[in-house]
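Translate structure to sequence.
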């Protein structure tokens, strides 16, 4: 019997059985111990499931597919951009060849990011963007005759991706560094930045940062951090004042500064880039996730002229990196369309509206039993529990409210698409509340 002869329910069950038997999911065991939900289609802010979850087949997506789907799903403008590019060419190699979508994208990124960032390396995922950022920094110091400068410094609580160099700068506990002793490069860690976007810079913490950077300046290539919002490492917010401080300290001690804006880029934290909250520019910036509006996988690593020229003066005067699908025209075309769609609207007002809706909708959870903290920054809402979340129960409880969430550790959180209307936003907040109570 072929798949097409089966009833829809049987088909779904068969597909899910194949999924459990063969398909690895993020951070999952094999074979899988919990079943995934089969998605049939998605439009606007809604995911349509093959079978109901919590009594609902349509769920409002509270996750933007992990920070990516800013404009929701199946957007006519983004669909058209992909179709138009598909009719021209879906891909050509980027060695020796170039094309308009990638050129326009790189030029646009240079235009909208802080001024000193002038050069763009396009790759295929956020982790690779971070690999490239680290490679740029290490190679810069080699090229200018300081090869001992090859360690990275970061603060705890970070997340920068799952390939090995990015893993080495993830939080040592959350990133399971004990599994990889002797394999991961040995980086330098300072404590997590003190919490609170509006908090004053803590002088004791500032002094600790200064001491660490000064003491290790001779071996430090760069400091790498997620500005303002630490995402998958714990959903924590900190003052932009620490970015200003890092910029000063790095300048003072001849250390490069990398901002990983893969999660925060394109307005999520309330500024177009989180660096804009502080008005500082890093030497290297990584973008990804929302870059293509959640349509296709692409990332960008931007760097300053000084860094690029330094690398290109070295004994190996090239940046030795070149992914097969570098600059992919489909991804670049939809990225261009997504950026224009964002910038052509009053996105600040939309993000503020979502921020306000989340603050209002989550306010009652502060002080609820089992809840340690409720925090909102830009279009990000977080409920931190005082215990590890029961993921299955929390997911089901949110689905009963008609909402898709993906809690982890002690966190129930949401970063909705910017197009989420107030009614759906209220349901998302109710979903977060239900998940927090059930989980
Ligand atoms: C998601 C993320 C990455 C990794 O991106 P992938 O595309 O998943 O490889 C790196 N840094 C930050 C801050 C992220 O949020």
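Result:
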């Amino acid at each position: 019997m072929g798949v097409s002869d089966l009833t829809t329910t049987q088909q779904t069950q068969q597909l899910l059985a194949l999924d459990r038997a063969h398909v690895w999911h993020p951070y999952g065991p094999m074979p899988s111990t919990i079943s995934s939900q089969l998605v049939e289609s998605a439009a606007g802010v809604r995911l349509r499931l093959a079978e109901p979850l919590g009594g609902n087949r349509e769920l409002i997506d509270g996750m933007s597919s992990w920070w990516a789907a800013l404009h929701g799903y199946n957007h006519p403008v983004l669909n058209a951009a992909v179709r138009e590019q598909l009719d021209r060419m879906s891909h050509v190699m980027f060695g020796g060849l170039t094309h308009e979508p990638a050129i326009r994208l790189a030029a646009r990124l240079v235009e909208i990011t802080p001024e000193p960032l002038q050069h763009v390396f396009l790759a295929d995922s956020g982790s690779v963007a971070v690999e490239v950022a680290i490679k740029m920094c290490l190679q810069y110091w080699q090229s200018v005759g300081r090869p001992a400068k090859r360690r990275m410094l970061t603060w705890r609580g970070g997340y920068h991706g799952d390939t090995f160099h990015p893993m080495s700068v993830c939080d040592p506990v959350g990133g399971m560094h004990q599994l990889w002793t002797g394999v991961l490069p040995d980086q330098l860690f300072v404590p997590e930045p003190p919490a609170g976007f509006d908090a004053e810079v803590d002088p004791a913490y500032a002094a600790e940062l200064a001491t660490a950077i000064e003491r290790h300046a001779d071996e430090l290539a760069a400091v790498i951090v997620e500005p303002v919002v630490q995402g998958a490492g714990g959903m924590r917010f900190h003052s932009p004042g620490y970015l200003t401080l890092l910029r000063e300290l790095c300048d003072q001690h001849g250390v490069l500064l990398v901002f990983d804006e893969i999660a925060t880029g394109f307005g999520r934290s309330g500024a177009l880039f989180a660096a804009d909250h502080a008005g500082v520019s890093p030497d290297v910036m990584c973008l990804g996730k929302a870059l293509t509006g959640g349509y296709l996988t692409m990332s960008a690593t931007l760097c300053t002229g000084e860094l690029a020229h330094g690398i290109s003066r070295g004994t190996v005067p090239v940046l030795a990196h070149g992914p097969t699908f570098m600059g992919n025209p489909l991804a670049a075309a939809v990225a261009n369309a997504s950026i224009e769609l964002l910038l052509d609207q009053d996105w600040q007002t939309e993000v503020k509206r979502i921020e306000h809706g989340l603050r209002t909708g989550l306010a009652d959870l502060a002080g609820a039993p089992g809840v340690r903290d409720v925090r909102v920054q830009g279009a990000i809402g977080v409920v931190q529990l005082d215990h590890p979340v029961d993921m299955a129960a929390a997911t089901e409880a949110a689905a009963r409210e008609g909402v898709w969430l993906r809690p982890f550790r002690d966190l129930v959180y949401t970063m909705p698409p910017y197009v989420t209307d107030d009614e759906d936003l209220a349901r998302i907040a109710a979903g977060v509340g239900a998940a927090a109570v059930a989980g």
